[in-house]
């Protein structure tokens, strides 16, 4: 029996070694799990991008945010997943900087799904945001039979040999539609506007071809923060119209810069596109319209 003791001792040692190895494997697996690369790429987000749900440390009660009571009402917009302040501005004909100011956004890079944003200026009635003021001539009126100071009655009858004054001209809208448009590039049109599908014209060309401002205005965005547009310039021309110039390889203007019609603002490229092209949009109160109806004949 005594001669068996050494073998038993060896078995115990083997069992101990196996136990230690098993423990090491378990600990190694746990360590691997803790050091796994994150699923979310936390790179720089576009301006005003909705933060991913995974990035939120705790849910936010959007009903307690400013303007929550205006959800669904004219002049206000409820943030949806994937929105950015730049896209919201483009879709509502506004500058993202104005949106940030009107909504008192301390950090324009952070907006929440469900948050309600004002998309018209504070001094504009949201119910009439799409209605431009009408300029009317001032007309003095008085009764046809008016009494003079001495009590006599006078009748508004034209003197013999004279003709009645013509009525005043009809009221005329403000000059928001009085824009002299020019082509933003010299290349051929290789893609047409399609309602609900293609939001503008696609103009062909070579890399480096000049991209021109289609009308006088102010640059409200110059950058690459809007997915699908590449290097993008947005110009606001007045309270009604803005234009967008996408897929450029080089931008030559910056935010808040004033530009003139025909001024070179970028160089044509293929950023966020499969070939060199200029995607050009004209938006009226934020809604894309067919640029071919606005641009002069070539």
Structure explained in plain terms:
The termini are far apart. The model is unreliable at 1-5, 26-57, 131-149, 151-158 and 168-174 (pLDDT under 50). This protein has 298 residues and is an alpha+beta fold. Strands 7, 8, 9, 10, 11, 12, 13, 14, 15 and 16 form a 10-stranded antiparallel sheet that branches. It is globular. A hairpin with a 7-residue loop joins strand 10 (217-223) and strand 11 (231-236). The relative contact order is 0.12. Among the domains are: 53-118, LysM domain (Membrane-bound Lytic Murein Transglycosylase D, Chain A, Roll), CATH 3.10.350.10; 189-293, Glucose Permease (Domain IIA) (Distorted Sandwich). The protein contains 3 helices and 16 strands. It has helices at residues 5-34, 85-91, 96-102; strands at 76-78, 116-118, 134-135, 145-147, 153-155, 172-173, 189-191, 201-203, 210-212, 217-223, 231-236, 241-251, 258-259, 264-268, 278-284, 287-289.
Q: Which descriptors would you attach to this protein?
A:
disordered N terminus; 15% helix; 3 helices; Glucose Permease (Domain IIA); two-stranded antiparallel ribbon; 298 residues; ten-stranded antiparallel β-sheet; Membrane-bound Lytic Murein Transglycosylase D, Chain A; alpha+beta
Shape: globular
Number of strands: 16
Following the backbone from N to C, one meets helices and strands in this order, namely HEHHEEEEEEEEEEEEEEE
Number of helices: 3
CATH class of the domain at 189-293: Mainly Beta
Q: What is the average of the pLDDT values?
A: 77
CATH architecture name of the domain at 189-293: Distorted Sandwich
Task: Indicate the CATH topology of the domain at 189-293.
Answer: Glucose Permease (Domain IIA)
Q: First CA to last CA: what distance?
A: 110 Å
Question: What structural category arises from helix and sheet content?
Answer: alpha+beta
Radius of gyration: 34 Å
Largest pleated sheet: 10 strands, antiparallel
Q: Roughly how much helix do the residues carry, as a percent range?
A: 10-25%
Report the CATH superfamily of the domain at 189-293: Glucose Permease (Domain IIA)
| Percentage of residues in DSSP E strands | 15-25%
Low-confidence stretches: 1-5, 26-57, 131-149, 151-158, 168-174
